[in-house]
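EI: anyone free to look at a 183-residue chain?
SC: sure, send it
EI:
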Amino acid sequence: MGNGVQKDSFSSRVAKSVEGLCAAFAMAGGLVLCAIALVTVVSVLGRKFFGGAIAGDFEIVEIGCAIAVSLFLPYCQLNKGNVIVDFFTLKAPPAARRWLDAAGCVLLTLVAMLMTWRLGAGGISLYSSNDQTMVLQVGTWWAFLIVVPSMALLSAVGVLTAIRSIGQDKDHPGGRASPEALS
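SC: here you go
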C-alpha cells in the first residue's frame, strides 16, 4: 500500500471518529434536555399539589440548557443544520457557493476556537473564585467541564466541514467530500 491509501484511510478514520463523537455528544444533550424537562414537570407539580417546588429548579434548568445547547452544536454543524442566508448566492455558480460555505465554516471554526479558549479561562476563574449558584450553593465551574470539550469538538467539526465544502462534488452530495478532500 502506498502512502496515499494510508493517508486516506487515516483521514477517513478521523472523520468517522469526529462523526461518532458528534452523535454521542448530541445524544448526551438529548438526555440532559429530558432531565431538564423532568425537573420542570416535577417542580411545577410539586408547586401545584404539594406547596413547594424543587429548590433551585431555575438554576438546574439554566445550567442544563447551556450544557444541552453546547452538546448539540457540533452535530448541528456536521449535518449543515445551522441557519444560512443564501438569498444572495442562489444564482452563484456551485464552485462559488462551495467556497463561501467553506469560508463560513472557517469563520465558525475560529469563533469556536476563541470560545473554547475563553470558556476554559472563564471556568478556571470561576473555580478559583469559588463561584456558586445562589439557591443550591453548587459551583458554577463544573458545567464548563462539559461545555469546553463541546466547543473544542465544534472547532474540529468546523475544520472537517470546511474541507468537505471545498471537496464537495456531484458524486458526494450533502457535504460529503471524496476521500481525497479529507486528506
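EI: Residues 23 and 179 are 21 Å apart (CA to CA).
SC: 👍
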